[in-house]
Automatic annotation (TrEMBL):
Protein name in the entry: SnoaL-like domain-containing protein
Domain of life: Eukaryota
Origin species: Allomyces macrogynus (strain ATCC 38327)
Length: 164
């Protein structure tokens, strides 16, 4: 599904996806095989090259007896319009139906921060402005919403011993 080669995504979807397959990542959720295919079509538009480097593959079963595969990989995306290559550490989880042997669930877990920080200018703004601002806003909201007595006072003990 990650391929930018013509026909490769269609073949993968035809051969491996259940018609009611779901895909999720930090940005997208798609709830049918058609919407999963559409979500991955963006790869062909945005990237000239997608290069996965797999670190490990772990297999098991879920409570329903379905086959579960977890793939840990660094995926390098070369942008089509800009000379930028972004490498994203991704954990992909695939749930394969035990009856049909087709993928019914695919989830990619990756860090938005890791992605943003690799983009020139955007990464600097994100790291130096957006993240600290979000942290300050969260602290302010917690302070406003939490009663003063709900937040424990700083401890004056060290390793369980009271200071004298």
């Amino acid at each position: 599904m990650y391929s930018v080669q013509p026909g490769a995504q269609a073949a993968a979807a035809r051969d491996y996806l259940d018609e009611n397959a779901t895909f999720a990542d930090p940005i997208v959720i798609a709830a049918t095989s058609d919407s999963v295919k559409t979500a991955f079509m963006g790869n062909k538009l945005a990237f000239a090259l997608v290069e996965p480097k797999i670190s490990s593959v772990t297999e098991g079963t879920d409570d329903a007896g379905n086959h579960v595969v977890a793939v840990d990989a660094d995926i390098a995306y070369t942008l089509r319009l800009l000379p930028i290559k972004l490498t994203v550490r991704t954990l992909s989880k695939f749930v394969i139906d035990s009856g049909s042997n087709r993928v019914v669930f695919h989830e990619d877990i990756w860090s938005v921060a890791d992605l943003m920080e690799q983009i020139p200018i955007v990464g600097t703004l994100y790291s130096s402005l957006a993240r600290p601002f979000a942290s300050s806003m969260t602290s302010m909201l917690v302070s406003m919403l939490m009663p003063k007595h709900a937040v424990p006072p700083p401890s004056s003990t060290t390793n369980g011993n009271a200071s004298v």
